């Protein structure tokens, strides 16, 4: 495997980000989006990020193989120091440490940007995603039953939290 470069995403990465995320939308409960994103939608999403809500990409041999983002958790001012984290990889790049690397970089950036808490929200069926966040210091803080509906089924979410300023626990 060639070295992985993690860098800030550019608008030119929007199509590659869609190529990564759209199969998850169509085939899995890793996201509760139900319709594939168009390039225009992805560009609008990209424009909502930046500043305190960066988007990063992981690149191998010049191709984007994964991405991660910090997004607004809730739009109210009291939540300004909390961000939601998301990370997605091309399936053939799973279990190579790339997701952990993206999360670690987002945690570092969150600290530098003055965030206090990061929230991960995972479908309860996505055990690998939950385990990855836990391996990166996130702690389960709750579960909401049957709050999402996809593929004709009610789905639970697990809520995980990472306190950016807390001493690290290894």
Protein architecture, described:
By secondary structure, the chain is α+β, with helices and mostly antiparallel strands. It has a single domain, classed as Gcn5-related N-acetyltransferase (GNAT) (Aminopeptidase, 3-Layer(aba) Sandwich). It has helices at 14-27, 39-48, 98-112, 127-135, and strands at residues 4-8, 55-60, 63-72, 82-89, 117-123, 139-150, 153-163. Strands 1-2-3-4-5-7-6 form a 7-stranded mixed beta sheet, with helices on both faces. Helix 1 crosses helix 2 (39-48). The two termini are 28 Å apart. The mean pLDDT is 95.
Percent range of helical residues: 25-40%
What composes the largest sheet?
Answer: 7 strands, mixed
Strand numbers in spatial order across the main sheet: 1-2-3-4-5-7-6
CATH level-1 class: Alpha Beta
Domain module tally: 1
Number of strands: 7
CATH architecture name: 3-Layer(aba) Sandwich
Strand coverage percent: 25-35%
Task: Please state the structural category.
Answer: alpha+beta
* Oligomer class: single chain
How is the CATH topology named? Aminopeptidase
Low-confidence stretches are none
The ordered string of helix (H) and strand (E) elements is: EHHEEEHEHEE
Looking at CATH, the homologous superfamily is Gcn5-related N-acetyltransferase (GNAT)
What's the total helix number?
A: 4
> Span between N and C termini?
28 Å
Q: Which word captures the global form?
A: globular
**Overall radius of gyration:** 15 Å
Q: Look at the structure and give the mean pLDDT.
A: 95
